[in-house]
Design a protein that fits this description.
about 65% helix; mainly alpha; globular; about 160 residues
């Protein structure tokens, strides 16, 4: 595997665009799903858009806290350079015959997001460059808080 610093900008740009599209689509889907659930919950309980705003605010901060806890390193080895960890993983993978990774990065929600446009028409970014699921959830929680803010600032609910 080549060192990513050796690649030219023209080679890295398509990968960076794929990674950004993957993360933004995931975050948008989190925000959209949360908003639909909040609207349903608010109208079933008779609260209207004011209750939607409050539910999104609370859920946004809960998601933000959960994503922060998931992003927090659990040991000093989590802070190692990614390239060193990648080369260790390549060495370990070459010594074992297992073809399935120890931890799956694919959840049902991630599969649902991969089926959404524009990701369904594009190739997946390389696994070594993908944003982690907690990182995407953190971005999604910021989108949920943005929807709550827009309900307050633009629409006056």
């Amino acid at each position: 595997m080549t060192d990513p610093t050796d690649e030219s900008t023209a080679d890295r740009l398509p990968v960076a665009v794929l990674v950004c599209l993957d993360a933004v689509t995931y975050a948008f889907t989190v925000a959209l799903t949360t908003t639909v659930i909040a609207v349903s919950l608010a109208f079933v309980t008779g609260g209207g858009f004011t209750r939607v705003k409050y539910v999104l605010f609370v859920v946004g901060f809960l998601l933000l806290g959960y994503a922060t806890v998931r992003l927090w390193p659990s040991s000093p080895s989590d802070l190692e350079d990614d390239h060193a960890r990648e080369s260790d993983a390549m060495t370990t993978a070459s010594l074992t015959t297992d073809s399935i990774p120890a931890s799956a990065d694919q959840t049902r929600f991630q599969s649902f997001v991969r089926a959404m446009p524009p990701l369904r028409w594009l190739p997946a970014p390389p696994p070594t460059y993908r944003m982690s699921p907690p990182g995407k959830l953190f971005l999604g929680s910021l989108f949920v808080l943005l929807v709550s803010y827009l309900l307050e600032a633009l629409f006056g609910f």
